[in-house]
Specification:
The complex is a heterodimer of chains A (208) and B (284). Chain A folds into three domains: 82 residues, no CATH class; 43 residues; 68 residues, no CATH class. Chain A is built from seven helices and no strands. Chain A is extended, with a radius of gyration of 26 Å. With 284 residues, chain B is α/β, with parallel strands linked by helices. Chain B is built from eleven helices and six strands. The relative contact order of chain B is 0.17. Classes of the chains: A mainly alpha (208), B alpha/beta (284). Chains A and B meet through α2, α4, α5, α6 and α7 of A and α2, α5, α6, α9 and α11 of B.
Amino acid sequence: MRKTLPFALVTGVGFFMLVQYFIPREEFEIVYEWSLDWIIVIGCFAMLLGLWSLTMASVHKVQRKTPGWGYSIITLAGLFFMLFVGLYPGQASLVRGSIFMLLFEYIYIPIQATMFSLLAFYIASAAYRAFRARTVLATILLLSAVIIMLRLIPLGPLSAINQWLANFILTVPNMAAKRAFWIGVGLGATATALKIMLGIERTYMGRD
Amino acid sequence: MNFYEQIMNLDRRWVYLVIGLVVVITAIFPFDVPLYVTPEVRSVYDYVESLNPGEVLMIGVDYAPEAMAELHPMSYAITRQCFKRDIKLLLCCLHQNGPGMVEQVISQVSKEYNKVNGVDYVYLGYKPYPSITILAMGQNFRIPFPEDYYGTPLDSLPMMGGITNYDNVKAILNISAGSATEYWINYANGRYNAMLAIGVTGVMTSDYYPFLQSGQIFGLIGGMKGAAEYEHLAEKGGYISREKDQLSAYKSMPIQTTTHVVVILFIVIGNIGFFLSKRKKSRI
């Protein structure tokens, strides 16, 4: 029963979603809308589960004093302080000027913006080290990268030629490679979905 | 270690120092960068231009503060263009750190143009699980968002009268720094045939050209350069102005230009070192 019921649910819902996509009927639409409500409800529970999981993982780290346990205290403090400020009754937390939004604007935004800005330095260093014309393929990669980077730079009369080259790289070889990649992803996802619906892939049920 | 090897293995701190100096110096002494407006950016601008006053454009803002520098200018420029042309906006957010981003844009620009919440624009707010939310909105915006961001039921907002799902908005513009874009393409366009254009970060841009060619998206604004191109068009159209300091991406282009020049120079230096050292070794 522990396996039959989840399998029956997954197969039934999976095939229904597949059929309703290709056969548009009013009855299907009603069930489809109803299922969307259900997905949202399940999603809310998943979020609560995530909150619980994060809290317990952080608490265990602090209790066991594992390396970096101090960061777990900061995680828990940040999590519950923001929850408290956001849910505190009697004030609208999501409008500009509220404590919640002030914390977001003056602590969270600068932190994230700083972290992302540091990437510029790492990328510059990585580009300097990685782009070496060691082989033919590495040379092609290097030249493509330089052409794409040059499109951001005004080169006078050469700009038009470079723009054309950059556009060619993006819309021909890049697109061909991306297409192959996306088709592969699509086929893989379809195969996995079919395996789950037919009961061949059952790892989502957890261990035996 | 000989000179050529030293060039090849320059301490990374020198790279950091040079990049830092170039950024600071260019910020202090900016200059004008001529811009070539790409067709994919122009098509988004032209589409917004083609809308009539009173028509509804939907904007999905799916980015966090880390992508602000690249994507915030797009949001501001498009919102200003729409409000000046009296186009109504329906905004939503599918990124957990995005609600504050939308709030910043909409509260500031709505004040500039005296636009009223619920009448000229509706901000639906944030919902997790982008794929589910996009699918649900295709049926009815009220399924995932029974209330707007500020807690008002959608049915009591004048603008939402007659707006049920994607069929009632002219197009969707997704400004995103993550995987939400794929869901918009797969579900909003793929399933519900919604007209879709996207604005994404520089590193994401190349991923979405196939969708542009296949016609699944009708426009693509890529990174800070794309944002600067859009601002350039919006400035020409009289929607934003330099005097009011409304061209933040365009203002950042000199910094982006000089840092790219420096990165290219470092690559050239590294390769000169590599070839000279290789030649010296082959002689020995």
